[in-house]
Amino acid sequence: MASFYLHVPSTLRKFSLPASSNGATSPSQAGGPVIMELPLDKIRRPLMRTRENDPQKVKELMESIREIGLQVPIDVLEVDGVYYGFSGCHRYEAHQRLGLPAIRCKVRRGTKETLRHHLR
Ligand code: ADP
């Protein structure tokens, strides 16, 4: 059986894809979530100090991500151009510990009210 590989020049690798089929290309537009790479330091994690990760899980994820890459993006909320992460804590820490500069995210747009709801 023939295999197909997509060779993309590194200069063209920064792109985002709609995570739903409604044609939205940015979480800033009305529409569904989009998949995009975000620098780790661009994602605020307001609950990071109050929740502790399981070190064994993080270790296993590091090994797996090193080997096969991140298979499921973390969920991120965008409010007024600021990105917030409330889940995917083990994947985020695994990326930090691996020294990876960016992480694949499923970004959906929310309002300040959505944000307040997450912080409750
Ligand atoms: P997190 O706090 O990041 O959600 P969990 O241990 O609760 O950590 O879940 C790990 C998640 O990471 C699972 O949903 C799993 O499908 C996902 N995942 C993504 N990429 C990988 C990978 N390379 N190896 C293992 N799990 C992965």
From TrEMBL:
One BP annotation, GO: cellular response to oxidative stress
Nucleotide-binding among keywords: yes
SMART domains: ParB
Pfam families according to UniProt: ParB_N
Keywords for the protein's UniProt record, in alphabetical order: Antioxidant, ATP-binding, Disulfide bond, Nucleotide-binding, Oxidoreductase
ParB-like N-terminal domain: residues covered: 36-115
One CC-aspect GO term: cytoplasm
Listed EC numbers: 1.8.98.2
Catalytic activity: S-hydroxy-S-oxy-L-cysteinyl-[peroxiredoxin] + [protein]-dithiol + ATP = S-hydroxy-L-cysteinyl-[peroxiredoxin] + [protein]-disulfide + ADP + phosphate
PANTHER family: PTHR21348, SULFIREDOXIN-1
UniProt-recorded name of the protein: sulfiredoxin
